[in-house]
Amino acid sequence: xxxxxxxxxxxxxxxxxxxxxxxxxxxxxxxxxxxxxxxxxxxxxxxxxxxxxxxxxxxxxxxxxxxxxxxxxxxxxxxxxxxxxxxxxxxxxxxxxxxxxxxxxxxxxxxxxxxxxxxxxxxxxxxxxxxxxxxxxxxxxxxxxxxxxxxxxxxxxxxxxxxxxxxxxxxxxxxxxxxxxxxxxxxxxxxxxxxxxxxxxxxxxxxxxxxxxxxxxxxxxxxxxxxxxxxxxxxxxxxxxxxxxxxxxxxxxxxxxxxxxxxxxxxxxxxxxxxxxxxxxxxxxxxxxxxxxxxxxxxxxxxxxxxxxxxxxxxxxxxxxxxxxxxxxxxxxxxxxxxxxxxxxxxxxxxxxxxxxxxxxxxxxxxxxxxxxxxxxxxxxxxxxxxxxxxxxxxxxxxxxxxxxxxxx
Length: 409
What we know:
The chain is α+β, with helices and mostly antiparallel strands.
């Protein structure tokens, strides 16, 4: 309607003035309700054409969308392993800080594994003490074997001296037995020394290695036990937390609730504009928004990023070919907008739907443009943005009425 009124000033009004004052026709006589189309046909036709052109210029260069939402992040509350709930430390809607306990799973299995790991470490400590005793025993065996060897050597030497003095006094068979006995005693000494070396190696290398592995298993058991307690990873509020003792929760299929992080960073609006505005939407464009949760307010915004992909064009490889006929709904261009001034989105409830207008700015192009007619055109394009701005303000004024009265809420 506003565009028609503006265009009528350049078409219908001059046409009427020409017929009224130049041709002398008057409304109610020559210009009647039945003849208005014929008398003002050129003005009406021109008005309709100009209106269509003006609306096209406005909506193309200053795009608008009702698909704008103030998104916020949610974090599912999940344990690292599935289990049944044993204790609950918070309630729904509670505000928590990072590191606060949320709930605890049944830990009987993990506690048993931890106790087993502790017993294994204690067992290796006892085994180390026993190995020290084995080292002492092996040392005693070495001394015993060496003593036996020395006795056998002394006896063999005595027999051999007797044979040298009086051949035939000692039988050759006895000498051979004594020589075999000496070799056996040497073997006993070697075996005792090997046993001592094995015990020393066990106490210096094997048992420490096994103890380190047992300590690692103990640490792993402690980690698994700690996993039974679920903590808040960030500051936020607990929502949809309806756990009861005995409920089964799983990191795959059964979350415990949702944690909504505390808003600390600059909030954004995410708007979806039509594909036809792909060449118009640029980073740095000024925009305005009015939101359902904050009516009667115009929020200045600036475009901070424009997504270079359209979501409906994505595909995932599967066992069937994609039929393009199934993608009937055209996708939109996702645009990220932030408040032009600090705190601009204060009072807008996270998740609220908004209406957004974006405005082109050709000031830099006008300053460098040499063509006069192009400069005039760019000025005109920027000027008609006021029409869209007025429409947005009218929408902001009518939003409560449309929602509460006409919407039946």
